[in-house]
Amino acid sequence: MCENPHDYSLPAAYAQCTATYVEAFTYLKQRHHQRIAILTSRPLEVSATTQAMVGAYEQVYQRTLSPKLLYTGIITAEDGEHAGTYFAQLTEPVTAVLTNGDDIAVGMRRAYLAAQRPVPLLIGQEHQLSGEVLGIPTIDHHFEVVGARALELAISEHPQSIALPAELIINN
Predict the structure, then answer these.
(1) 10-68: per-residue pLDDT in tens?
(2) Band of the pLDDT at 152, cuts 50, 70, 90?
(3) Residue 77 CB: number of other CB atoms within 10 A?
(4) Could you tell me which InterPro entries the record lists for this protein (predicted)?
(5) Is the domain covering 17-143 a CATH 3.40.50.2300 domain?
(6) Start-to-end Cα distance in the chain
(7) pLDDT tens digits for 80-122?
(8) Cα 20–73–86 angle (5° rounding)?
(9) Cα 96 from Cα 65, distance rounded (Å)
């Protein structure tokens, strides 16, 4: 299993991402970003990851995230572009976006450039080549390591849970 099993005694290796999401929002707050959007693949009601991202935002900013600033159903760069089109037309623009992937951040950027609007600060995830090329901050969940540890646990005779830290990488 690659998710925290909480109270179930299942073998699991998973990325410990909440602290890194807090770090990412703290990074944005220190740079005076107040209107921040979040892109995720699944809705808040069903996704532990979306809940962690929104929870970290609310912890750092001490306020509820506006539903207008949470855009779900984002899986591809094209989806990121659709989200970017939505955010670029808002009368009160966002100044930063925590995306759920570096490729998705590329789609966001593409939409803002097409709309001839200032591109907000984008934070990606997964430490993809596209994010490195753009020089954007990214969150690396080290899924290769998580997957390898999960496989080791699956064939192990000693069920345990292993939380592996995610990492905020500032690509300047």
Answers:
(1) 667 667 889 999 999 999 999 999 999 999 999 999 999 999 999 999 999 999 999 99
(2) confident
(3) 18
(4) Peripla_BP_I (IPR028082)
(5) yes
(6) 34
(7) 999 999 999 999 999 999 999 999 999 999 999 999 999 999 9
(8) 95
(9) 13
Residue 84 CA to residue 81 CA, distance in Å, equals 5
Beta carbons within 8 Å of 10's beta carbon, 6+ residues apart = 1, 159, 161
Domain ranges of the chain: 17-143
Pairing of strands 167-169, 138-140: antiparallel
β-pairing, 12-16 vs 36-39, is unpaired
Give the H/E segment covering residue 139.
strand 138-140
CB 166 within 8 A of CB 141: yes
